[in-house]
User: Fold this.
Amino acid sequence: MPGAFLNVEIRMGNVIERYQKAPGAVTVALNNSLRRMGRKLVPELKSRTPVGATRNLRNKTVFEVYGTGLRQTLDVRQSARRGEFFYGEVVRVGRRPGKRPPSKALETWVIRKLGVSVAQAPGVAFLVARKIGRHGTKPNRYAQDTLRANMGFIHQTVRDFGREIRLLLAR
Assistant:
């Protein structure tokens, strides 16, 4: 999925053979567990996301559970983009030196973050783009920090799901 940085899939192992006993209940329990994770992770991620010039990266943070049966997946993504370019990945992993980004894409940022006038923005944006092209940018580890801070919750949710399934299949 474009813009996705976290993908959670709960592997079912030998549950599949026993799944036939309560397929609807197991599917609903899996979906509920994945949604519980999404409802917890999205606000946490938003609070750690750097506030850029437009707040788009923070505001476009969502989760989606897709798939059916035992093949459901949770995607947490930040779908902020400019044209076809999803810039959340560059914020999360950084950018290596090389080709400079288009300076037009940085004009709003230099106006809002550096406080330059609209008239000065194209020139300052060019200088910022040139520096990024020469030196790259450092990654911001906010997504990894969010995941690390919530691993206990994720593990507990998976354990709770396992207990619920054991009870459903024991009937």
